[in-house]
Design brief:
The complex is a heterodimer.
Chain A (H helix, E strand, L loop, with lengths): L17 H34 L15 H10 L11 H17 L7 E6 L2 E6 L7 H22 L3 H32 L4 H11 L3 H4 L1 H14 L11 H4 L9 H26 L13 H23 L7 H29 L5 H17 L5 H5 L7
Antiparallel strand pairs in A: 1-2
Helix pairs in contact in A: 1-10, 2-10, 3-4, 3-10, 4-5, 5-8, 5-12, 8-10, 8-12, 10-11
Chain B lengths: L1 H28 L29 H31 L10 H25 L26 H12 L4 H12 L1
Classes of the chains: A mainly alpha, B mainly alpha.
């Protein structure tokens, strides 16, 4: 589906100078991203408190709303420790490599269409309208593994090394599934442009969550593993590895790791919204103004963000062998088969709604037949060093 | 179009600027205490023995290798997906080139070959993180090695030496008794 290039010089509407507009947008999007990430740190503690029948932070500001600010100030005033045996360059580089790519991926998310206030036109509400934004996102999520592995390795601590290794193996395993799920979506909507993917879903009214249910479920599971969240948080794994790859980090460097994790969550929620829930579209309504699209988009992304927290405080952590089995022996073959079926459906010109019916007809009996839990004794005897 | 890449570059610069400004502000404000105890590697209060840069499990390398193969596969499949969609939907640049069915079959062959690769790694057991061991379970040795034999053992040894001449006959008798 072709998308018209945004006309930069329109005669009837007034525009800001280009550089001012870019910096303004960058500030706006960064503000939104970092604000959301900061609020997520508070929401994590609040939601965990509600789930565990506690009150949660309520001292700093009303309902503890200023808690993230207090935390940030505290991080700034903390002493920084670079351990004696560490590799100083990599140790300093790792937090930056963890935070920056996570933040950059938000640049291509289409939050809303053309923004017009009175005579003033501000272009679309996204930083950049790249034709290949799917590849851009894939490249940046691929970079996020560097922060973890370099942080774990450079600390020269056993806990850090094990945490970093585990996390990197996990992230690369699930990245394949993530990309294959995205590939099915690309095949379905016929574009590498996030705007076009969202617009295609909005125009046909069939969101990918409905016509690509397998890819949707795979994406959501892989999303948790990519961001090192429960039930896949082997990077940290407090009872086993103290803090995992950031055991040795303190002060602002630790804050950057933290920021990177929460920014990655926000980005993943936005991506899931764009890929599978039609961006800022509402069902049965073709065209929406930007001031409707933006809240709708934010509401959908927030539901994913809440899912992150909900799962974290509800499910127990996987074992490492279960994680690898799920990633390589269940999700990767399933994603490949899903891609295969999607290709066939596109080539034969069948109705897309055949996909969910097929998925239900095949996967439900399959799961009922083979999905029984393994007996405990079988998986626990003669266990090798798992990590 | 290329303006948008410049735009991403500016966005990147703003992000890096934010990170570095934070780090620089923190470096001015935080306390600096030079205490050697604090600089030790953390190991729950134990004194760390040796580096952490040791040989680790080979299976991490295997996983990384399989990842590289599949990541390259996926990179090749992105343009394939676009061309396939365009040729069968009748929109875009791939229309009229007659590439549709060919692309579909080629893609299927490509995926199947790599699927076989995954099946091979799977069958070799490189994807199983828990190593199974099918032999008999390990039994710790029953007798302790001692430097000197006990008096009782010395007596037995002496008796055994006296009986050495007709040892074979004794064994044959024992076997008959057991039978």
């Amino acid at each position: 589906m072709p998308v018209e290039a945004v006309t930069l010089a329109d005669t009837t509407t007034k525009e800001l100078p280009l550089l001012v507009l870019w910096l303004f947008k960058a500030g706006l999007i960064y503000g939104g991203l970092l604000g959301t990430a900061a609020l997520m740190t508070l929401a994590e503690r609040k939601v965990s408190a509600w789930i565990q029948y506690r009150i949660g932070p309520n001292r700093v500001g009303p309902w503890g709303l200023l808690q993230p600010l207090a935390d940030g100030v505290k991080f700034i005033f903390k002493e920084e420790v670079v351990p004696d045996g560490a590799n100083p360059l990599m140790f300093r580089l790792a937090p930056i490599l963890s935070a920056v790519p996570a933040m950059l991926a938000i640049a291509v998310i289409p939050f809303a269409g053309e923004v017009k206030i009175g005579d003033w036109s501000f272009g679309t509400l996204s930083i950049a309208n790249l034709d290949i934004s799917v590849l851009y996102v894939g490249a940046l999520t691929g970079l996020s593994v560097y922060g973890v592995i370099l942080g774990g390795w450079s600390s020269n601590s056993k806990y850090s090394l094990l945490g970093g290794l585990r996390a990197s193996a996990q992230m690369i395993s699930y990245e394949l599934t993530l990309l294959l799920a995205v590939l099915s979506v690309v095949l379905m909507n016929g574009s590498l442009d996030l705007r076009a993917i969202a617009a295609d879903q909005a125009s046909t009214g069939m969101w990918n969550a409905i016509v690509q249910p397998v890819a949707f479920v795979l994406f959501v599971i892989a999303m948790f593993a990519e961001t090192n969240r429960h039930p896949f948080d082997f990077a940290e794994c407090e009872p086993e590895l103290v803090g995992g790859f950031h055991t040795e980090y303190s002060s602002m460097k630790f804050a950057l790791f933290f920021l990177g994790e929460y920014c990655a969550m926000v980005v993943m929620a936005c991506l899931a919204t764009t890929f599978f829930l039609g961006g800022g579209a509402l069902p049965f309504i073709a065209e929406l103004a930007w001031y409707v699209e933006l809240p709708v988009f934010c509401a959908k992304a927030s539901s994913f963000l809440f899912l992150f927290l909900w799962v974290r405080w509800t499910l127990p952590r996987f074992r490492y062998d279960q994680l690898m089995t799920l990633g390589w022996q269940v999700m990767l073959p399933l994603a490949l088969v899903n891609l295969f079926v999607t290709g066939a459906v596109v080539a034969l010109g069948w109705h897309p709604l055949l996909m969910p019916l097929l998925a239900i007809a095949v996967l439900v009996p399959f799961a009922l037949l083979f999905g029984r839990p393994r007996p405990r004794s079988e998986s626990l005897t003669h266990e090798g060093a798992a990590g | 179009m290329y303006f948008d890449y410049l735009n991403v570059l500016i966005f990147c610069a703003v992000g890096l600027g934010f990170v570095f400004v934070n780090l620089i502000i923190a470096s001015f404000l935080r306390p600096k205490r030079k205490v050697t105890e604090g600089l030790e590697t953390y190991e729950c209060g134990e004194e760390p023995i040796g580096d952490a840069w040791i040989q680790f499990d080979i299976r991490y390398y295997t996983v990384a290798l399989v990842y590289v193969i599949f990541a390259v596969e996926i990179a090749f499949l992105f343009p394939w997906a676009i061309v396939l969609g365009e040729s069968f939907r009748g929109t875009g640049a791939a229309v009229g080139t007659g590439i549709g069915a060919f692309a579909l079959i080629e893609g299927i062959v490509f995926i199947v070959i790599l699927f076989l690769g995954l099946a091979y790694v799977w069958a070799k057991g490189d994807l199983d993180w828990v190593l199974s061991f099918s032999g008999p379970a390990y039994q710790p040795p029953q007798e302790r090695a001692r430097f000197l034999p006990s008096v009782h053992e010395l007596q037995e040894l002496a008796e055994a030496r006296n009986d050495e001449g007709d040892g074979e006959g004794d064994e044959a008798e024992e076997n008959e008794e057991a039978a």
